[in-house]
């Protein structure tokens, strides 16, 4: 599994995350392995999820 993960880190997926300090969704390049719930395929998905959480 580790070998597969290392190979996947060579991937190049433009993605977005929510930055609590700036209260915006920012772009980053995801290498394709690991990650967390703060990674979105589009800025629209990021805003829809994170701005809703912020209002709660």
What is this entry, summarized?
This is BPTI/Kunitz inhibitor domain-containing protein. By secondary structure, this protein is α+β, with helices and mostly antiparallel strands. It has 2 helices and 2 strands; from the N terminus they run αββα.
Structural class: alpha+beta
Beta strand %: 25-35%
- Mind telling me the CATH superfamily name? Pancreatic trypsin inhibitor Kunitz domain
**From N to C, what is the helix and strand string?**
HEEH
CATH class: Few Secondary Structures
- Number of structural domains: 1
CATH topology: Factor Xa Inhibitor
Q: How many strand elements? A: 2
**CATH 2nd-level architecture:** Irregular
Shape: elongated
Strand order of the largest sheet: 1-2
Largest sheet: 2 strands, antiparallel
Instruction: Work out the helicity level.
Output: 25-40%
Mean pLDDT across all amino acids: 85
Uncertain runs with pLDDT below 50, 5 residues or more? Answer: none
Radius of gyration: 13 Å
